[in-house]
Amino acid sequence: MLEELKVKVYEANMELQRKGLVIYTWGNVSEIDRETGLVIIKPSGVDYDTMKAEDMVVVDLDGNVVEGRYKPSTDTPTHLVMYNRYPNIGGVVHTHSEWATTFAQAGMDIPAFGTTHADYFYGDIPCTRDLTDDEISGEYEKETGNVIVETIGDKNPLEVPAIVVKNHGPFAWGQDADSAVYNAVVLDKVAEMAYKTMTLNPEVMRVKQHLLDKHYLRKHGANAYYGQKL
Ligand SMILES: O=C(CO)[C@@H](O)[C@H](O)COP(=O)(O)O
User: Is the CB of 73 under 6 A from ligand 1?
Assistant: First the structure.
């Protein structure tokens, strides 16, 4: 079932490892097939070094396992909150990548300091609030999804393609698994740059709004320049 998509999701998971965003089992990628409403996701606790495409798990939007010999990722309920809430999202990624997790643990937004950041993110990358004790002891992973949705607010999630969950780590998303992975890679790199920028100059100011607009808007939105035919 959905064999091609399983290979795609497997490859997207392995790309996290190739790009240095995960070690051992510290992350997961999924993609949804909107026609069937089925989600392919990494199995839980299977090491990246031994994982195979056929190990990918198929779940429905309620979290029922439809096919697979392993349990789906522990973070599956978080991914499902995103797919259920946002019909324009096709792929979701979670990692514990070093630099984005550093901001998550500090409980800090990742400030927009320059055009590298502005090419992908329209302003600071937000950090969520703390989960409450009730949320942690209840449906924790689902509540993690809910707090991400709360943090995105009324914005289009494709315009806020990543956040950091406080004391936990980054989640990123996109139109499919590959674009979600791409956003997770860029997220970690801009987090690293932001950390080093603040270390070098603790008084540093954010990039000017005009420059942020210039770089973000020429790559994104209705009037984007990049990728257009002559
Ligand atoms: O966030 C966590 C644990 O804190 C997870 O991301 C695990 O690190 C990966 O879990 P599986 O996807 O293997 O269940």
Answer: yes
Query: pLDDT digit string (tens) for 125-150?
Result: 999 999 999 999 999 999 999 999 99
How far is the centre of ligand 1, averaged over its atoms, from the C-alpha of 179 (Å)?
Answer: 20
Is the predicted ipTM greater than 0.85, yes or no? yes
Segment 5-15, tens digit of pLDDT: 999 999 999 99
Task: Report which protein residue has its CA nearest ligand 1's atom 12.
Answer: 73
Residue 147 near residue 110, CB atoms below 8 Å: no
Catalytic positions are 119, 226
Report if residue 226 sits inside a domain: no
- The residue whose CA is least distant from atom 2 of ligand 1 is 26
Examine residue 188 and state whether it is found in any structural domain, yes or no.
Answer: yes
Domain encompassing residue 7: 3-219
CA dihedral 17, 19, 21, 22 (to 10 degrees): 10
Residue 203 sits in a domain of what CATH number?
3.40.225.10
Which residues have C-beta within 8 Å of that of residue 51, sequence separation ≥ 6? 10, 13, 14, 42, 43
117 located within any domain: yes
CA within 13 Å, CB half, 32: 26
Task: State in Å: Cα 96 to ligand 1 middle.
Answer: 9
Ligand 1 atom nearest to 24, measured from its CA:
8
User: Ligand 1 within 6 A of 28 CB?
Assistant: yes
Question: How many independent structural domains does the chain possess?
Answer: 1
